[in-house]
Amino acid sequence: MTTIFGRSFFRANGAKANVSKTPAVRVFTLCLAGSLVPGAAMAKDGDQTPHMADHVTIGAGASVLPTFEGSDSTRVLPLPVIDIRQGIFVANTYSGIGVSVPVTDEINMGAGAVFVLGYRQKDVPTGIDRIKNAAGIRANATIRKWGFISTVGVTKVLGGTKGTVADAVISYPVRLDDRLTIVPGIGTTWADSKYNDRYFGISLEESAASGLSRFSPGSGFKDVTFNLVANYRLSPHWNLSVGGSAIRVVGDVSDSPLVQDKLNASGFASISYTFGR
Fold it and tell me: Which CATH superfamily is domain 19-275 in?
């Protein structure tokens, strides 16, 4: 969730090369599944906010995240909340800046430019190459049927890895009363070999410099995410959201020396204001 943002964090295995003493963020991608902000947006949809109506929602919060996907430590980051629609033009922290077009009453398709955040050199162990911040192009489709909200998306990273990531999320908003909605959901992420190798792989040069074993994963599913978001409407304009995720690293990448713990947890809290209601 991908996703804020889809977030993926990776660090070298602390059992070797004293990596556990060096926090290392392999990548932070705002566009992938596992994002907590989209969960808040879905909660609003479940709270009977017309998802296609023009609106401007801004807010702020904080998130507690693993320092990388597979880490045994956490970090706290600021969490911006942005959700804007004017006609077919949209800007939010899940799909980036682009367009969103209704195909039917139940199906919506969109595309946009997203920001892909790399990791800082000081966060990676000696010998592991850094990944620069990059842009990406994302296409997605959302289906609302029988109370479920299902979203599938594909992101092509234009810099850094230049890899491709696909994600899918399904959620079911449950309105408990006029103010409170909870949104359970499940998602998964697939990545091609170029992406997985850049984020989870260890080249010959990196192996020699870091002391970690060489590793080169292929394409495949890399994680499964379980989300639970609670959305509380304080007033017609103000909204409070809290949520958490459990992320399980799966597939070939779970065997990477950069993965310490295959099960991670994250959480967030935010407050937002919607103009014009």
Answer: monomeric porin ompg (2.40.160.40)
